[in-house]
């Protein structure tokens, strides 16, 4: 899986025409098949914005609810509001990257210009919000774990003030972790065969195509920090919470019965 993606991103280095011809814009394009581009336009360019708008509205409602006067007094509300904010901006960046990419191939010069010039800045931000969404979810789960499994630590750890500090620390970590993404794509000049003129395209940099970098950052670090690691942690936390709730509910009838007998 990893090797195939590396080969795909290394294509731009091998598509220079003979006799030192121009660099083709299609070299960095996923597919030039017209039927696929039309399919991608309907799916990504039309359907995705509709779903994205629902997500944006939903996350705005979530933020409004959890930051209300009654809810923001709970640490869990701070984490859930932060998660909704992160998801909101993640959807925005995804709409920029995917929707504009789908439309720019259909005689939309302004959309193409906006995509090519904006992607080097939007792509790293999308990675930041993807990471923060994962860790805000983990933070909310840890907060629930402490409240249910370790109630003695609840007053010390599960406070709105500590939750806000944790949110800021998570965001700092997400920005630092995703700095390499800022050096992965670049705007390049190329030759557009369809328009028979020079144009611009977004292509992976040599830094992104470096096999050692890809292996360490995408294979090992991504698996540890964004995929398997957080997933395993969430599974363990949820199992512990469910087990503790089950044990408490199982012991409650016995306690109630003993209280009645004592009376």
TrEMBL record:
GO annotations of cellular component type: membrane
Keyword list, A-Z: Membrane, Transmembrane, Transmembrane helix
Domain G-protein coupled receptors family 1 profile, residue spans: 58-263
GO molecular function annotations of the record: G protein-coupled receptor activity
Transmembrane segments annotated in the record for this chain: 41-67, 79-100, 133-153, 165-183, 220-246
Domain of life: Eukaryota
Gene3D superfamilies, sorted: Rhodopsin 7-helix transmembrane proteins
InterPro entries assigned: GPCR1-like, GPCR_Rhodpsn, GPCR_Rhodpsn_7TM
One matching Pfam family: 7tm_1
Name of this protein: G-protein coupled receptors family 1 profile domain-containing protein
